[in-house]
Amino acid sequence: MFTIYLYPDADALLENKNRKPNLNESIVSEICHRLGLQFTEEKETTAGTFAPIDLLGYIYAVLHSPAYRERYKEFLKIDFPRVPYPESTEKFWALTELGGQLRRLHLMENVEPLQNLANYPVPGSNEVEKFRYADDKVFINDTQYFDNVPSDAWEFHIGGYQPAQKWLKDRKGRTLGYDDIEHYQKIIRVLKETGEVMGKVDEVML
């Protein structure tokens, strides 16, 4: 809904050129003033500059702060979230990095299954029947399960649903293929690491 860049036409979008940041210039100027940084329309390696992708990382981190969500939970139910200005350059870059980590996790960029996390050790029909969680195992039927699934990942909420549970619920009665099993292992990793990064976000913000 709110793209980070605007493109003049479809050709520019396909070729990824002639784009302009979709950001409020007065807000960007205020951030420049507060942090003593220079804004660039595209990411540069020049010291003392920041770009739209950095602001996205900062915003993404703030919105994933458990403390922020708890403090403003009633407001978040009725309005768009309001993001505070960065308190310092150090906090800005720390949150930008953590927000970038979260963004890449949620896009599953370079995410692969981890050893000893959501292992799938028992052969069988691979049919999702009645799933349940017990002793760090996610059973998809009476005999088959994903092992070493942290309870935090199993219970993790995004909005009004729990991804680790909803993914299986949507596949009840279906047979999981190799790609499905691997994808679920990636989901568990993403949820586990998301929780860890969110904790780090709070450490920076508090």
Task: Show the helix and strand layout.
Blueprint: E1 5-6, H1 10-15, E2 20-21, H2 25-35, E3 38-39, E4 49-50, H3 52-63, H4 66-71, H5 73-76, H6 89-106, E5 132-134, E6 137-139, E7 145-146, H7 151-155, H8 163-169, H9 178-205
Parallel strand pairs: 3-4
Antiparallel strand pairs: 1-2, 5-6, 6-7
Q: Major sheet, described briefly?
A: 3 strands, antiparallel
Spatial order of the strands in the main sheet? Answer: 5-6-7
Gross morphology is elongated
Class derived from helix and strand content:
mainly alpha
Number of helices: 9
Count the beta strands.
7
Radius of gyration: 21 Å
Task: Please state roughly what percent of the residues sit in beta strands, choosing from under 5%, 5-15%, 15-25%, 25-35%, 35-45% or over 45%.
Answer: 5-15%
- The termini sit apart by 30 Å
- Helix share bin: 40-55%
Polypeptide structure, described:
- With 206 residues, the protein is mainly alpha-helical.
- The chain has a domain at 5-110.
- It has nine helices and seven strands.
- It has helices spanning 10-15, 25-35, 52-63, 66-71, 73-76, 89-106, 151-155, 163-169, 178-205; strands at residues 5-6, 20-21, 38-39, 49-50, 132-134, 137-139, 145-146.
- The protein has a three-stranded antiparallel sheet, with no helix packed on it.
- Helix 3 packs across helix 6 and helix 6 (89-106) packs antiparallel against helix 9.
- The radius of gyration is 21 Å and the shape is elongated.
- It starts with a strand and ends with a helix.
